[in-house]
Design brief:
Helix 1 links the parallel strand 1 and strand 2. The protein has one domain: TIM Barrel (Alpha-Beta Barrel). The chain has ten helices and eleven strands.
């Protein structure tokens, strides 16, 4: 299994370590490629956070990654990208500004859900105290309504398009340890994600199998769940394994778990990102075998 990760956060946003630190760690771990995906700026969407790349640093960030691409040529394939949030009516990957940047790839993700009362919006994967405000105050303790809001936003992003990789598809479960708020196997929950599957299949997107929750000690499973992976696989939606690394030591973390989940879901192959042309992202298909990652 060729080792790559197209989901990487450095000190340019909410990660720890420089671009160089991550490239060196990737080579040490036998990676063939690494994609840098800083959280795209959100100032133009009316947000102010400590974890997104500031607007004024987009050019220096891309310069740093492209310099690394030159420096590591022949040893490691380095790609420049962004993880772009979808916030209905405010921003999303379909915005033409991202393609004008000459990015190699874009990850489309939903972190934020609407505030029913129209005030401050919060992320579903925020720390427990923030999630308590999101669920308890904004959604008045209605976990079903919050969950619907998340999947509705994800559906909106998929229909709008503009991204190459779908980020952590079922991120809503990150604060739902031991199914405290909703059942992941219940018919109500299943009815929320199933309608998105044909949208992904017809849109030609790649879905990441994300080990970031495991790497950061926030979950005991990958994103998305094995049930979702199996259903996507039935529709021949392609997958790529990513670390969602926030420090160099996360690279390749829990890939064996991701590989096992994919095999159990009956998925026959993985994708390896190889670059971009005017026609779009380029991928190489690779059979998924029972051998451990190497």
């Amino acid at each position: 299994m060729t080792l790559t990760s197209m989901h990487t956060h450095t000190e340019w946003c909410d990660g720890r370590g420089t671009v160089e630190d991550f490239c060196r760690a990737a080579v040490d771990r036998g990676f063939a490629a690494i994609g840098f995906s800083a959280h795209a700026p959100v100032e133009h969407a009316g947000l102010s956070t400590a974890w997104h790349l500031p607007e004024k640093k987009i050019v220096p960030y891309l310069d740093a990654v492209r310099e690394a691409k030159r420096r590591w040529a022949g040893k490691l394939a380095v790609f420049a990208g962004l993880e772009v949030d979808y916030i209905e009516g405010r921003m999303g990957p379909a915005g033409g500004r991202y393609r004008r940047m000459g990015l190699d790839f874009v990850i489309g993700s939903v972190h934020y859900v609407p505030n029913p009362s129209g005030g401050e919006i919060l992320a579903v994967d925020g720390p427990p105290d923030e999630f308590a405000v999101l669920l308890g105050t904004q959604y008045r303790g209605d976990a079903a309504a919050l969950t619907r809001a998340y999947w509705t936003a994800l559906s909106g992003m998929i229909q709008a398009g503009g991204f190459d990789i779908l980020g952590h598809m079922d991120l809503i479960k990150v604060n739902n340890r031991d199914e405290r708020y909703f059942s992941l196997s219940g018919a109500e929950y299943r009815a929320l994600w199933r309608p998105l599957l044909p949208l992904l299949a017809s849109g030609g997107f790649t879905v990441e199998v994300n080990t970031g929750g495991l790497n950061r000690g926030r979950t005991n499973y990958v994103y998305p769940s094995g049930e979702i992976l199996a259903a996507l696989g039935d529709l021949r939606v392609p997958f790529v394994i990513t670390s969602d690394a926030h420090e160099p030591g996360h690279l390749g973390g829990h890939y064996e778990t991701a590989r096992r989940v994919l095999l159990e879901a009956g998925c026959p192959a993985l994708r390896v990102f190889t670059g971009r042309t005017a026609a779009g992202a380029l991928w190489r298909e690779e059979p998924l075998t029972a051998e451990s990652p190497s």
